[in-house]
Task: inverse folding
């Protein structure tokens, strides 16, 4: 229930930003006439079925699109499972520059946690069609992540570059 409310609020923010872009000033607080600046939200698609193996500067990636997502510091990221079975998007600890060969996750990955890239995060087990919490790109850097269920056996992993 809490997550559903949170997603609903986030979508409202998205709708408000879109509205401001197409009809500046219609509510007296849109466009370039004041109010807080819009926050960009980047959605990373999660599907082992749809997104095959590809090479990145950090090693072989699979299961997320894009395989390397570049975002601005201060923007938001969320994960959407478009597959027909569960996945996670879980930060790989250790500040590594290459995907480790061995599964880096504990069972904690199955519980949703974290709201910033630098603090570590996990979407928890994302069922088909569901979206994760919003994660703030709070610091510049490279942040590797992967799926608890499919890391070692299927190479399900990808990267976010915040700059
Ligand atoms: Cu998976």
Result:
């Amino acid at each position: 229930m809490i997550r559903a409310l949170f997603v609903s609020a986030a979508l409202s923010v998205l709708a408000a930003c879109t509205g401001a872009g197409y009809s500046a000033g219609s509510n007296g607080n849109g466009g370039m006439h004041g109010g807080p600046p819009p926050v960009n939200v980047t959605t990373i698609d999660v599907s082992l079925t749809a997104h095959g193996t590809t090479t990145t500067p950090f090693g072989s990636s699979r299961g997320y699109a894009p395989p390397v997502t570049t975002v601005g510091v201060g923007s938001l990221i969320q994960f959407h499972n478009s597959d027909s079975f569960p996945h996670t998007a879980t930060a790989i600890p250790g500040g590594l520059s290459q995907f480790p060969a061995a599964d880096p996750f504990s069972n904690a990955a199955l519980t949703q946690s974290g709201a910033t890239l630098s603090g570590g995060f996990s979407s928890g087990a994302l069922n088909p069609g569901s979206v994760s919490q919003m994660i703030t790109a709070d610091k510049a850097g490279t942040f590797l992540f992967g799926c608890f269920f499919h890391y070692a056996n299927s190479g399900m992993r990808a990267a976010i570059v915040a700059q």
